[in-house]
């Protein structure tokens, strides 16, 4: 492939020399060098094709010709500072607003999801005159300083991180693993009451709520789907306290959930956020993003007297690309495809849950699906090592998938929206084989078991320098690897697996 300039080893060496060591990559012990991509496929330097189940950035498909053409044509004509008058900006704002409730009518164009969420906080602080922010546990909203403060997914990973006194973390509305679960009669109200109580505690300490911010569906937190009615009740509590509601659609917007264009709309027509942020899929890989809010919030921001401008946000090329993305979503019925293929994928995965004791939960909407692996369905013991093993085994079979969540045990499906039923069949078939081999190697019961905590064996899987568990021959050479055959003994120690510490990281 002509895009390759160096051999893979030299690329790795140069990366180590010139790129910050905190900039992590996928499959760090054996990274993939990608030189070309098209549709739902990516190609390495040898021409090997990989099925991409990770990239919610390449929303309408990698290098979509319509999007590429729109950007190239506008770049040949004009690209300039967004402070010049240009039709592309207002045309795109008009089209974007048409997908949203009427109340959300004012756009601020920026360049990344992080920049969008940072601006949303500024809008909230200025509009309310308050300072305190409520966020959700395991949330991720971006990498700039203001957003690390409201992203427990990040600051909980740092042992010496000190939580900002103005940031308050409410429980994630996770009905599978959270405080209030599926058997609860009204988890939406229970989780919303946690926010209500938090508001009251903040007030007692002299604070005032500026905003509640949440991903419409939590991604890095493990593909969490909030119970319906939760956002409405939270918004009521927060607005009564003088705050506003920010919906972060950076990961899940633009038709990914299938039934709706925006994921917050899953909560019902009676719910409208005060601010919506968007990024990633908006430009199909081109760096652009947007904040959309109400006239009232926008006017309050202007009343501060501080001029706001963004040199590149909403430039002619970005807006041309944004319009092309909207065109492709409609022309190729990608929202409908997300609904149909997403349901098909979910049904396939539900069958795996019936078959494999390692599968604890299947959840998702459209082409945003999570498969949570557990070692015990009653205790919900996270199968972290097993999830990482699945990821690496799929990579060896040219399928790219990631795992995330607070325990890194949720397999995340968020592929380009052109993903097909054939793709779903391929991925699930491979997962089926990997889980079968893992369960056989680990001596797990193969079916009809609530608990999959092994009662008959104990061993540690061998690991490489990155904590990656070797798997060669797991299914076929159990005795040679010291895996005892299952017995009827009942007094054995449960399976003990050394958990990897440096494996696949999430794309965010």
Molecular structure report:
- This protein is α/β, with parallel strands linked by helices.
- The chain is built from 13 helices and 16 strands.
- The chain has a seven-stranded mixed sheet with strand order 4-10-9-8-7-5-6, with helices on both faces. Strands 11, 12, 13, 15 and 16 form a five-stranded antiparallel sheet that branches.
- Helix 2 (65-77) packs antiparallel against helix 10 (316-331), helix 7 (187-204) packs parallel to helix 8 (230-240) and helix 12 packs across helix 13.
- The chain is globular.
- Residues 447-508 have low confidence and may be disordered.
Short description:
The protein has 508 residues and is α/β, with parallel strands linked by helices.
Beta-strand content: 5-15%
Write down how many β-strands occur, each being a DSSP E stretch of 2 or more residues.
16
Helix residue percentage = 25-40%
Give start-end ranges of low-pLDDT stretches. 447-508
Radius of gyration: 24 Å
What is the string of helix and strand elements?
A: HEEEHHEHEHHEHEHEEEHHHEEEHEEEH
Spatial ordering of strands, largest sheet: 4-10-9-8-7-5-6
The biggest sheet, with number of strands, parallel, antiparallel or mixed sense and barrel status, is: 7 strands, mixed
* Alpha-beta classification: alpha/beta
In one word, what is the shape?
globular
Assembly context of the chains: single chain
Question: Helical element count?
Answer: 13
Mean of the pLDDT scores?
A: 87
Distance between the termini: 28 Å
């Amino acid at each position: 492939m002509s895009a390759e300039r160096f051999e893979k080893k030299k690329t790795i060496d140069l990366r180590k020399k010139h790129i910050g060591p905190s900039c992590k990559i996928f499959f760090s012990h054996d990274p993939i060098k990608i030189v070309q991509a098209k549709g739902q496929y990516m190609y390495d330097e040898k021409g090997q094709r990989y099925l991409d189940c990770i990239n919610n950035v390449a929303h309408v498909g990698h290098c979509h010709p319509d999007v590429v053409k729109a950007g190239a044509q506008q770049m040949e004509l004009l690209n300039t500072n967004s402070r010049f008058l240009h039709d592309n900006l207002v045309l795109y704002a008009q089209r974007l607003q048409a997908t949203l409730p009427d109340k959300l009518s004012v756009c601020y164009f920026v360049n990344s999801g992080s920049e969008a969420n940072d601006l949303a906080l500024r809008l909230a602080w200025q509009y309310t005159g308050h300072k305190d922010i409520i966020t959700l546990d395991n949330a991720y909203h971006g990498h700039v300083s203001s957003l690390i403060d409201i992203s427990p997914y990040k600051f909980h990973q740092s042992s010496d991180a000190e939580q900002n006194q103005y940031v308050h973390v409410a429980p994630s509305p996770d009905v599978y693993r959270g405080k209030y679960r599926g058997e609860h009669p009204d988890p939406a109200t229970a989780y919303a009451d946690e926010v209500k109580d938090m508001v009251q505690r903040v007030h007692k300490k002299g604070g005032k709520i500026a905003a509640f911010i949440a991903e419409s569906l939590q991604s890095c937190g493990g593909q969490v789907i909030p119970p319906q009615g939760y956002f409405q009740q939270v918004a009521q509590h927060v607005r009564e306290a003088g705050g506003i509601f920010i919906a972060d659609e950076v990961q899940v917007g633009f038709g990914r959930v299938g039934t709706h264009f925006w994921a917050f709309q899953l909560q019902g027509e009676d719910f409208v956020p005060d601010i919506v942020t968007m990024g990633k899929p908006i430009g199909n890989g081109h760096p652009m993003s947007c904040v959309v809010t109400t006239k009232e919030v926008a006017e309050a921001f202007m009343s501060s007297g501080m001029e706001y401008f963004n040199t590149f946000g909403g430039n002619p090329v970005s807006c041309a690309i944004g319009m092309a993305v909207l065109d492709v979503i409609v022309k190729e019925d990608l929202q409908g495809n997300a609904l149909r293929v997403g349901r098909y994928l979910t049904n396939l995965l539900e069958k795996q849950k019936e078959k494999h004791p390692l599968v604890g939960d299947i959840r998702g909407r459209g082409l945003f699906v999570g498969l949570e692996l557990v070692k015990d369905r009653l205790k919900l013991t996270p199968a972290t090592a097993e999830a990482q093993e699945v990821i690496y085994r799929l990579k060896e079979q040219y399928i790219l998938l990631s795992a995330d969540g607070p325990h890194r045990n949720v397999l995340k499906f968020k592929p380009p929206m052109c993903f097909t039923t054939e793709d779903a069949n391929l991925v699930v078939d491979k997962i089926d084989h990997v889980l079968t081999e893992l369960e056989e190697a680990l001596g797990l019961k193969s079916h009809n078991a609530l608990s999959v905590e092994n009662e008959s064996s104990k061993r540690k899987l061998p690991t490489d320098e990155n904590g990656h568990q070797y798997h060669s021959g797991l299914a076929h050479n159990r005795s040679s690897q010291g895996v005892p055959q299952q017995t009827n003994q009942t007094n054995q120690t449960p399976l003990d697996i050394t958990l990897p510490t440096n494996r696949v990281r999430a794309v965010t």
